[in-house]
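Q: I have 348 residues here and want to know how they pack in 3D. Can you give me a structure?
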Amino acid sequence: MGVALVGIAQASGISLPVTAGAIISGVYFGDKLSPLSDTTNLSSSMAGADLFVHIRYLLSTTLPAFMIALVFFLALSFMSTPEVNTAQLELLASELNEKFRISAYLILPMFGLIGLAVLRMPPLPAIAVSIVIGVLIGLIFQSPEAGQGGQRIFGYWNIVATGYHTDSGSAAVQALLSRGGMESMLSTVWLIISAMFFSAMMDRSGCLAKIVQTVIGLMRKDRHIFLGAGVTALAGNIVAADQYLSIVLSTRMYVDEVQARRFQPEMLSRTAEDFGTVTSALVPWNTCGAFMSATLGVATFSYLPFCVFNIVSPVIAAFYISTGLAIRQRPEADALKRSVSETELSPR
């Protein structure tokens, strides 16, 4: 979708860095709030948080950041009047119409996925059902590129496994369609597993405990532990150059201290997302920054100033931590505080 929007922006004479910034802002807004997102599932599981409670906690930082980004891009859209190159857009539409039957039923897999997510179905079966719907639509409505009968079914399985590849004369269509498949996600899966191995070794060797105790010694208030977790997540993106390692480290390092101070685990998972997930695309040598730059064809430092959502999210989170807004402890911790207060106020 992002590649298609960049192509449309290029044909319309719209600034590519601004377009890339808007796309990345929207991508990470959806990524943070989707129960099917890899980072959302990873951060909540590593912090010991309930997935849907974690998403509810994310709303307090994510929605304000999104509204600020929306106002920013609306203002830019009113200030600019690009000249649209309709010929290039028509060529792109013509190429797609030649290869596929474009109709409203093609959005059924997406609606199915959204519906199952709303019904709180776990991510794997929800994605599997959406894939089955997509394959059935392809078998029934699309041209038999993959062969006939059983060979055609195997062809669609091959597309699911290794991605779709087309020999189009249009570079825009080629870049848009020749991608995907489970195979393309293997490097991400191995990266997550490696990050968890690294975190476990750091934990068992005592390195994590030493680092955490040093950070805690610098804190004036209990809630500042989340500021430490946020800085750790940000440093993970810069030093380790990977989003998943950033999330694993920032949650694994502080999860015991968060429990000891009776904070809700969703506070830690939210912090990992606010500081770790969204800033990964802002670092040129980070895997996410490199991917965004290569996919959209825009240098990281060029689109960085326009990634408003990604910049504002950690700022809002840091403000909440500093002021104590939207910082919640477990119910038993609140009850304990009230009990202590009543004991201190009672006459002796």
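Q: Anything worth noting?
A: The chain has two domains: 2-181, 186-345. The radius of gyration is 23 Å.
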